Amino acid sequence: MRRRRLGNELRRRRTAAGLESRAAAEAMGWAESKYSRVENAKGRVTPQEVESLLKFFGVEDAQVVAALTNLARDASKRGWWRPYGDVVADSYRDLLDLEADADAEQFTGPAIPGLLQTSAYAREIIGATGLTRTQEEVHALAELRRARQAILTTRPGGLAPLKLWAVVHEAALHMTSAEQPHMMREQLRHLLDISDLPNVTIQVLDLRGTAHPGMIGLMEIVQFPAPWPTVVNLENLRGSHFVEGTEDVKVFEDAFARVVAAALSVDASRMKIRNIMNGLDT
Q: Domains of the chain, with CATH numbers?
């Protein structure tokens, strides 16, 4: 995923400079096929080579140069999730790669987002939606999901914790489990506790609320520091699909803003969660 983001940005900068890929290759002393592999995330490129390419493209913004050279440096870095092996689907690895570099994420969907799930709730959701998963894989993925949540409190390299804004439908808060009768009370308690974090915002879409774009399904909007563009993750039973590109992404950003407007306020959402947890919701 990092190589793909780097390749996309190099292509965008080259195009903005009015240059063909052949010219970029010649400037580097490469075959055009080698440069094409870099832009298509199939070839490696060093930070020094990225810096030379940007200079050829006329990019002088120090922030842009630093961002792209750093990404080239990190492109081959092994993710913390590697020990989980093949249980992690390619699309999920891509999402974890994105989150590692992101500074904010916005979520809306029919279930409580993975970054806010307890272990018991995660097992229940993964078991119900991972139709081809074995019991061992379900437990491994639930463990991975909990480990992923560390990004909300601590991050390597001095990065600030990820900012999360989650809008969850009230129906998700009423789910039950025959095998885990205390699951939802623990999950709701966890939502109240974690919403105390300054970087976590949780809103609830009331059962009696108005129609909104979030009714279409799950979407995660992953935002990055400049100059990196926002990426949208859409999920279904077969995995994830990523939406990139300014115009396409803006549709989802506008949709999320409408979902936020349709939801209860943060304080009213906390009260809703607390009342459901205590069995007092009316």
A: 2-74 (1.10.260.40), 89-277 (3.30.870)
